[in-house]
């Protein structure tokens, strides 16, 4: 019988961290060997024999946590934000001194969202028109969502690569804002509606046909399959990987 | 056996008119007794024994056509635009002198669209949030569509009536246009996509639930069931009716 | 200033009941005067001065609870199942002896769901084709859902009333089950998908157009606006009302 | 300036063929050098200097047409059905004798449909649940559609490959047909609705999230961008390619 992967969760009392604790405990091929909160000493993960850490802490703590893991030969799966280009460079240098150790840093662990973005970007190379509609709860303060902006940028880059420009649009007369925001030439519309969580639709159109790729995120639980997939794959991806799509067999 | 309704179509060579000719010919309870083009004399409809006219001509001709029909005791179903408030008043006066004659003037004969608007307006009285997304082919010159603007106005009026204001929205930071156009406090988003025809979605949200009412118009043929329904019902509605919803048993 | 409505919740420790307790407490025009669990004596609601009870208990208890309320002149809003035709008849007789007392018994308090069903039934009178797709989490044991069956029956009754039969269907060769279940001549398809809660789509089609009415229930919270609406309106509806649509200004 | 590709269309008077004639004529990088009907002699395409043929004929004629093209060093893009495994083997042998000649045989030239199927198959490796809903006009005689069956089979093969079985389903009590048809363990539901053309939705669900990939085919015109893409790429793909996805840069 295969041995179970020894996993430690950092930030175990946070909203995401506590979900991760439950997810690791429920995974038949993993063993939760440590669950650390804000004030616990990192040494505990070594003492517990962890070979993997899941870091779901805060921007101020994550860099120190990951450095500690790498220096102790422990693979890291990181969902915390705050990783600037500079921080990533420092980490790459450190990983070069620790070959064999893998680190995955991902802004989004929802498999469906990662796949939806990858598919939309690829498909946008083949369609005359593309627009994005994102829909969220009305307490969100920014519009459009970060995910929608990144999706639009990726789509724009793909279209430029194949020589496609913006989508056709004969609008001459519009009420201000009707045609949405312009992100690198891609129109993005943001709906805010009580009852919703986080949803995104990429609409692609050509003569006589439409392709729609929609992702609905109903619950924080949606991140956990991606976190577990990260833990299972991180040892086979030494060095730094940014974005869960790097682990998916997308070939995109 | 019931006699078939004798119907004349005006504007029979236009895009809508030629569809109407086909629709009337296919209707088992109707008989097409005349089909007039731009230069044909109106007297032909009297000679042909028409009891109903379907007017699908142009703004310049429609008023004269309808006046002629009413003066000859012929019921009229009118899809032509250009009926200002003043013109409608003149027509009402004329109809008062011809009791028993019915005229239906409708900007939209697609049953689904008429129902969708009526349902959305009614439902908006019961939901915290409501927004509209309309989607059309990219050759359309105005945004949002006239139907979307009318729907938003009707929704706003319904919400005011029950003391509901705008939908909640915590947006503090937005890319210009992301949150759509503001029509009487209702957000309206206009998507333009190759391959589409004319589509509209009204999204209503409350705690833990969403109601979506969507209409898709794929083809001009969608107007014909409404035109036929108009012909069948116009004699039972003497005087002027504006809007097909006046003939639908909506009770709304 | 208007006095707040004194409300008691029965079944206050259950899943629905505890949501109701929170909802009543949050409503600015209501006061929670009692919250009773399984073993609490009903007399407490009289002592507390309740003028309204919300019953979210179990089939075995609800009849006794409602009888007690009516006999003490207290209006009742009931979400508990188990009300057979016989039980309803007994209740009607009791209410006849207590004019002025109102009771609302509703199988479904989600406003969106009630509206969606009413709209779909009405719209089905005007379309050639109609089918239902319901989508739920994969732990549900029955297919299709009770709501989908009731919607299909209501649609079938409406179509019969206007002389419309089943929807057109040229299928000659099918894999068993592909065309869904047949409920009074209406096709119903049941999707089961991890991540979903409770969703239903009624699709209506005519020449060149489609009307779609969709309801998404994400959370038990979706029932509470309907419960509060029931409390606010029950006193104005003496006698027995079955179904929340009886309180909605639908005119359908 | 680049020379235009000399293209011949076979089956030019058929429904698909006449669309192809228009599409080739409109393509700025192509020249229509011949358009043959049922009784025209194939030699005309050689005389006209065609380097590419588009075959949109009938199962009885297509094999002879393609053989003729290959033997004359002309690349072929084929949308005609009827290519059995045996016929394909014969063609492969012929192509081995004519290195440098390319043939593309595709059952479906709608880019959106090809992409949707590829994406759905790939995504199904990462989700607990997957089901298919296909929707067509009510004059269709088979249910589910061939595309839906192929999509389900491809999904099943992908899931088997990664050790995923069927989707979870606790259904104990069902009305016959409610849960759809079973195609290799994937549930497929077929909706038939007046007004529709050809539509397909693949629904994928995991804890707290849903991914939906939908394709709408409104018009035969949707096949033409794929046909043109085939013509442009066939010379770079010597030998036989089955399925347009072989030409798309999907890396899937």
Automatic annotation (TrEMBL), chains A, B, C, D:
It comes from the Bacteria. The active site is at residues 136, 140. NAD(+) binds at residues 11-16, 79-81, 106-109. Its main location: cytoplasm. GO terms for molecular function: 4-hydroxy-tetrahydrodipicolinate reductase. Keywords: Amino-acid biosynthesis, Cytoplasm, Diaminopimelate biosynthesis, Lysine biosynthesis, NAD, NADP, Oxidoreductase. Pathway: Amino-acid biosynthesis; L-lysine biosynthesis via DAP pathway; (S)-tetrahydrodipicolinate from L-aspartate: step 4/4. (S)-2,3,4,5-tetrahydrodipicolinate binds at residues 137, 146-147. It catalyses: (S)-2,3,4,5-tetrahydrodipicolinate + NADP(+) + H2O = (2S,4S)-4-hydroxy-2,3,4,5-tetrahydrodipicolinate + NADPH + H(+); (S)-2,3,4,5-tetrahydrodipicolinate + NAD(+) + H2O = (2S,4S)-4-hydroxy-2,3,4,5-tetrahydrodipicolinate + NADH + H(+). Residues 113-244 form the Dihydrodipicolinate reductase C-terminal domain. It is found in: Cytoplasm. Its EC number is 1.17.1.8. InterPro entries: DapB_C (IPR022663), DapB_N (IPR000846), DapB_N_CS (IPR022664), DHDPR_bac (IPR023940), NAD(P)-bd_dom_sf (IPR036291). Residues 6-109 form the Dihydrodipicolinate reductase N-terminal domain. Gene3D superfamilies: Dihydrodipicolinate Reductase, domain 2, NAD(P)-binding Rossmann-like Domain. Homotetramer. HAMAP family: DapB. Belongs to the DapB family. Catalyzes the conversion of 4-hydroxy-tetrahydrodipicolinate (HTPA) to tetrahydrodipicolinate. This is 4-hydroxy-tetrahydrodipicolinate reductase. It comes from Sinomonas terrae.
């Amino acid at each position: 019988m295969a041995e179970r992967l020894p996993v430690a969760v950092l930030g175990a009392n946070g909203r995401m961290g506590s979900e991760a604790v439950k997810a690791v405990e429920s995974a038949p091929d993993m063993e939760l060997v440590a669950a650390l909160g804000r004030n616990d000493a990192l040494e505990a993960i070594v003492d517990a024999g962890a070979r993997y850490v899941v870091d779901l802490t805060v921007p101020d703590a994550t860099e120190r946590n990951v450095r500690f893991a790498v220096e102790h030969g422990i693979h890291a799966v990181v969902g915390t934000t705050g990783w600037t280009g500079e921080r990533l460079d420092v980490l790459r240098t450190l990983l070069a001194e620790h070959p064999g150790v893998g680190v995955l840093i991902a802004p989004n662990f929802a498999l469906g969202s990662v796949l939806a973005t990858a598919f939309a970007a690829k498909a946008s190379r083949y369609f005359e028109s593309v627009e994005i509609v994102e829909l969220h709860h009305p307490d969100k303060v920014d519009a459009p969502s970060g995910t929608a902006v990144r999706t639009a940028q990726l789509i724009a880059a793909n279209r430029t690569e194949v020589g496609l420009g913006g989508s056709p649009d004969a609008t001459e007369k519009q009420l201000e804002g009707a045609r949405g925001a312009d992100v690198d030439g891609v129109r993005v519309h943001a709906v805010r509606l009580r009852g919703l969580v986080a949803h995104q639709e990429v609409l692609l159109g050509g003569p006589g046909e439409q392709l729609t790729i929609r992702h609905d995120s109903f619950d924080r639980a949606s991140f956990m399959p991606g976190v577990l997939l990260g833990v299972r794959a991180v040892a086979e991806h030494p060095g730094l990987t940014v974005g869960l799509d790097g682990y998916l067999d997308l070939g995109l």
